[in-house]
Specification:
The complex is a heterodimer of chains A (102) and B (465).
Chain A (H helix, E strand, L loop, with lengths): L4 H21 L6 H12 L3 H9 L9 H28 L10
Chain B lengths: L3 H20 L4 H26 L5 H22 L5 H25 L7 E2 L2 E2 L1 H29 L12 H22 L2 H19 L7 H23 L2 H25 L3 H6 L6 H7 L11 H9 L3 E6 L1 H6 L2 H13 L3 E6 L9 H8 L7 E3 H4 L8 E5 L8 H4 L18 E6 L19 E5 L2 H11 L1
Parallel strand pairs in B: 3-4, 3-6, 4-5, 6-7, 7-8
Antiparallel strand pairs in B: 1-2
Classes of the chains: A mainly alpha (102), B alpha/beta (465).
């Protein structure tokens, strides 16, 4: 009997939770705000689903209920992706070490 | 058009890049590179999606248009937003992730063929379960984040909103969500799907209104976690590895942050999310307190104390963010340093309205991050320091947490500010902090209260130094 592919996805999911657990504990507390903004940005990889919704399966008309929700989701996710990564970049650029010569 | 196997490998690569993006945050030096990994992972995921669909029909142009609109809006916000508004921004972004998850789920429910999930009315059972969980969690994230945003932005009162029967009502709604998912899966009726969304939006709203302003660090972290689980739910539906990995990462990240925040207040997670903290004892406590003597001073006195100190520890809190005093503070510290006074900063885990809030503000004001310390790192140094300068913090310095088992904040880790030779406490008035209790520190022999706006007081002290 073959193993259901769902089990593989579940394995990836569970292992990623553990990876996330250890990686996030190693994040320095002073960078917790950038951590939140960057996790925000990466969770917007949900745009992948939105693009499929917007493009695939439109037999005939470009705009149907399914694709309209897809387009809206693309817009929301794009705000998050650009906003999230750029604001993280902006924050991280501010963290500076003490100048040695002072 | 690329094969499903090849695109799955690329999605895996972008998932790994996202892990590296978080890994980079272990130190400020590696963090900037980490962020680039994250961007690369996102670019790969988006390009691979286009290639795997391969059908560049007339819809393609609309995808680009909406991508561009969102991108411009996002970039504009990212450059314009002041650093003090970061908690609101993050809450706002969470709501967008939640809503996007809901929209994708609706789209998949209405047109399952596009996602290879079966046909309307006979969607594969597994996919339907994953989809409805993703949609419900997404909806909760959306409405919960909207409330958090309104509270942080000050458009809604930060004090807890409670009413009779609140908890039984919430429990009832949560049970109804499970029943609705069951009904949806057994009947495939779209009515249950829409009802599920409505009820989920409602519970997100109801869950956050009883939680007060200063508990927002926990709420934001919790919603962060939810947005991850919603993404993971959709990831299972779409059989997409990048989404599953990311959802798990973000979900556990938010959960850990909420745990750290709860520990910083010595309160259980349930105590925080059940809400109502600090709303009830505020009046009773302050009324039966007899007037105790307080020493208050002006900028001149403060400057005199600091000029004669050899080491100063600064304790910033939410009040500093409200008064936008971080730049004025750094100027004061620069002057102190010119006089060979050692200055360091002490940050309590729950200072501010989100995890790491104070660190970002200090970084914005060009404070080097190696002068900024966490509670455990610096707490022993207070005994050897000459002056503690408390600016905008309150409850996190209250010695009552160590001495009075009756106090609501008893057991909460606090900064040992009272061990300093002298304490300068910048505050507008003697009013109690968020926990609704008096701060014993106000009445200590070695405390000098500076009643003024944090920014103005700091500037005045600099002038007098």
């Amino acid at each position: 009997m073959e193993i259901d592919p769902l089990i593989f996805r579940l394995s990836i999911f569970i292992l990623s939770i553990f990876v996330g657990y250890y990686v996030v504990w190693s994040v320095t507390p002073s960078l917790h705000t950038p951590l939140m903004s960057v996790t925000n940005a990466i969770s917007s990889v949900i745009i992948v689903g939105a693009i499929i919704a917007g493009l695939a399966g439109n037999s005939g008309s470009v705009f149907n209920i399914s694709s309209i929700f897809g387009f809206l989701a693309i817009c929301l996710a794009a705000i998050n992706i650009f906003g999230g990564f750029l604001v993280t970049q902006r924050m991280l650029a501010m963290y500076k070490k003490k100048k040695k010569d002072k | 058009m690329i094969s499903p196997n090849l695109s799955a490998i690329f999605y895996l690569i972008s998932g790994v890049l996202f892990i590296l993006a978080l890994r980079g945050l272990s130190s400020p030096e590696t963090s900037r590179k980490g962020n680039l990994f994250g961007i690369l992972g996102m670019v790969i995921a988006i390009i691979v999606t286009f290639l795997s669909i391969g059908n560049f029909s007339s819809g393609f142009i609309y995808v680009l248009i909406f991508l561009l609109i969102g991108g411009i809006v996002g970039a504009f916000i990212a450059y314009k937003i002041p650093m003090t508004a970061m908690p609101e921004l993050v809450a706002g972004f969470h709501s967008l992730v939640g809503l996007a998850a809901v929209f994708v789920a609706i789209s998949a429910f209405v047109n399952p063929e596009a996602f290879n999930l079966g046909f309307p009315g006979s969607i594969k059972l597994g996919s339907l379960i994953e989809m409805s969980i993703g949609a419900a969690v997404g909806a909760i994230t959306f409405s919960g984040s909207i409330i958090a945003f309104l509270k942080l932005q000050g458009l809604m009162s930060g004090s807890p909103i409670t009413f009779k029967g609140q908890h039984p009502l919430n429990a009832l709604i949560l049970i109804s969500i499970i029943i609705l998912i069951y009904l949806l899966c057994s009947t495939q009726s779209s009515n249950f799907f829409w009802l599920l969304l409505i009820v989920s939006f409602l519970i997100g709203f109801l869950l956050i209104i009883p939680i007060g302003g200063a508990d927002m660090p926990v709420v934001i972290s919790m919603l962060n976690s939810y947005s991850g689980w919603a993404a993971a739910g959709i990831g299972f539906t779409l059989e997409n590895t990048a989404l599953i990995i990311t959802g798990a990462l973000v979900g556990s990240s938010g959960a850990i942050l909420s745990y750290i925040m709860c520990k910083g207040m010595n309160r259980s997670f349930f105590n925080v999310i059940l809400g109502g903290f600090g709303a009830t004892d505020q009046n009773t406590k302050s009324e039966n307190k007899e007037q105790r003597p307080v020493k208050s001073g002006n900028a001149d006195d403060a400057a005199f104390l600091m000029k004669n100190a050899s080491s100063v520890i600064i304790v910033p809190g939410y009040g500093m963010a409200v008064a936008q005093a971080q730049h004025a503070l750094r100027e004061m510290v620069d002057t102190l340093k010119k006089n060979d006074i050692k200055v360091s900063y002490a940050i309590h885990p729950v200072a501010g309205r989100m995890p790491g809030h104070m660190n970002v503000l200090l970084a914005e004001a060009n404070v080097p991050y190696d002068e900024v310390f966490e509670l455990e790192e610096i707490n022993n140094d207070f005994a050897n320091a000459d002056v503690a300068f408390v600016i905008g913090a309150n409850d996190v310095t209250n010695p009552v947490a160590k001495t009075d088992p009756q106090s609501p904040i008893y057991g909460m880790p606090v900064l040992d500010v009272e061990k300093c030779k002298s304490v300068l406490f910048v505050k507008r008035s003697l009013s109690p902090g968020y926990a609704g209790i008096d701060n014993d520190l106000f009445y200590k022999e070695n405390t000098l209260m500076l009643f003024a706006d944090a920014k103005k007081m700091t500037e005045d002290i600099t002038k007098n130094l």
